[in-house]
Amino acid sequence: MSVMKDRIYPVVFMAVITAICIALVSGVFLSTQELVIRNETLYLKRAVLYAAGIKVPENGPEAARVFDERVREVKTQAEQKSAVPETLYYEIVSLGGSIDGYVIETYGPGLWGEIGAVIGFHPDLRTMMGIDFIKQNETPGLGARITESWFKEQFRGKTGPFVMVEEGRSSKPNEVDAITGATRTSAFVLKIINGGSLEVEGLIERGGPHGS
Amino acid sequence: MAANTKVKKVFSEALGSSNPVFAQILGICSTLAVTNKLENTFVMTLGVLFTTSLSSFTLSLIRKWISPRIRMMVETLVIATFVILVDISLRAYMPEIWRQLGPYVGLIITNCIIMGRAEAFALNNPPALSLIDGFASGLGYTYVLLIIAFFRELLGSGTIWGITVFGGWWNNWAIMIMPPGAFFMLAIFIWIVKGLWLEKEGSR
User: Fold this and answer.
1) Which residues in A lie closer than 8 A to residue B93 (C-beta atoms)?
2) Helix (H, G, I), strand (E, B) or coil at B18
3) What is the pLDDT of residues A14-52, one digit of tens each?
4) Distance between CA B1 and CA A166 in Å, rounded?
C-alpha cells in the first residue's frame, strides 16, 4: 500500500497531468496553425513588395493580391522529383509585363543574432529598389532601429558598394547613414547588402532561362 | 468579512511591503530585459498577469492531489502550459508584437514570481484566493515595470509609447535603453521606494 502511495501514484498523477497539458497546448496550436502560417506568408509578401518599392496596402488580402499581380517567384528546377523546389528569387514585373527588378531573401550575422533581409535590385543588379528586414534580434532602440523607415528608405535608388557615414551626413549615392550607438549593427547590415548584390547575380544564373 | 480582509492583505502586500520586484527582488531578468519600450513592456506584463493568475488558480485547484515530491514538476508544467498558450495566441493574433518580444514571452516560464506564488501561496490556499493572489502579484510586477519602462523610454528615446515628446533639442541617453540603463533605473527605483515608503512603514 505504501509503495503504491509513494512510488506509483506520483508517476500516474504526473502522466495524467502531462497528458492534459499536452492536449490543451496541441489543441490551441493546431487550431491557430493555419492563421500563423497565413501571417508568416503575408509578412514575407509585404516585405517583398516593400523592398520592390511597391506601395503595400494595409489590408491583408489586398496586399496578397498586389503580390500575385506584380511578383513572380522563381524556383529551383527540380532535379529529383521528390525535391521540393526552393524559392531562388522574386521577379518584379510591371503591369505591362516587363521585368522591373529582382528581390532576394538573404541572411547574415548581426550583433546578437542572425539578420534576415529582403533586398530589391533594379535590372542592372547594382542599384537598389529597397530593403526590408524580416528577422533581427538587435538591441531595441539602438540596432533595432534598422527597421525604422528612415533607415530603410535611404537605400532606394542608391548604388553600392556602400560605405557608412555618421547619422544624418550621407550625401553621395554610395553613402548611407549609420545608426548612432549601433555602429556594429550598421556595419553588419551593410555587409549583407553589399554581399546581396553579388548573390543576386548568382541566383539569377542558377534560375536559368525560364519561360512563362 | 474575513475573506474581505484577506483579499485586502493580499493586495497591500503584493503592491507594497512585499512587492515581488522591489521588496523580494524576484523577476529581475524580465524587469531588466523588456523595459526599454513601454508598448512591449505592457504586453509582457499582460502575459505575466495572465500566467500568475491562472497558474495559481489551477495549482490551488489540484493542490490536494499533488504529492509533495513532485510538486515542483507539476508547478513548472502548469506554468509552462499557460505561457505557451500566451505565446501561441500572440503569434496568431498579434504577430507584430510577438515578433518584437521575441524569446521573452517563453522566458515568462522562468519568472520566479510565478513559481514563488505557486509555492508560497497557491499550494496552501483555496482557488479563488489564489487567483486573487496571483493577480495581485502580477499587478505588483506590472506597475513597477511600467514605471521603469516609462523613464527608460523617455530618457533613452525621447518618446512615450512611441510618441515623440522631447523635440530635437533632446540628446537621447543611449545607455538608458541598453541593459546597464535597466540596472541604474531599477536601483534608483528600489532606493527611492525603500527609503521613502517601506522604511517609514516599518518604523511605524
Assistant:
1) 32, 35
2) coil
3) 999 999 999 999 999 999 999 999 999 999 999 999 999
4) 66
**Sign of the four-CA dihedral B199, B200, B201, B204:** positive
Look at B177 and A17 and tell me if their CB atoms are within 8 Å: no
What are the pLDDT digits (tens) for B72-91? 999 999 999 999 999 999 99
Cell of A91: 521577379
List the beta bridge partners of residue A93. Answer: A99
pLDDT digits (tens, 9 = 90+) for A52-66: 998 888 888 888 889
Other CB atoms within a 10 A radius of the CB of residue B179 amount to: 11
CB-based burial, B106-126: b 16+ in 10 Å, e otherwise: ebbbebbbbbbbbeebbbebe
Nearest to B178 among A17, A28, A139 (CB): A139
Assign A116 to helix, strand or coil. Answer: strand
For residue A82, how many other CB atoms are within 10 A of its CB?
6
Which of A4, A16, A20, A28 should be substituted to probe chain B, the one whose Cβ sees the most B Cβ atoms within 10 Å? A28
What are the structural domain ranges in chain B?
A: 25-203
Where in chain A are the domains?
A: 47-77+84-207
Nearest to B121 by CA among B36, B34, B6, B2: B6
List C-alpha distances in Å: A81 to A78, A84, A85. 6, 8, 9
Provide DSSP, A51-99.
HTTPPPPSSHHHHHHHHHHHEEEEE---SSSSSPPPEEEEEEE-TTS-E
What are the tens digits of pLDDT across the range A97-146?
Answer: 788 899 999 999 999 889 999 999 999 888 999 999 998 888 777 888 89
Contact B92 A39 (CB under 8 A): yes
All three cell numbers of A144: 533595432
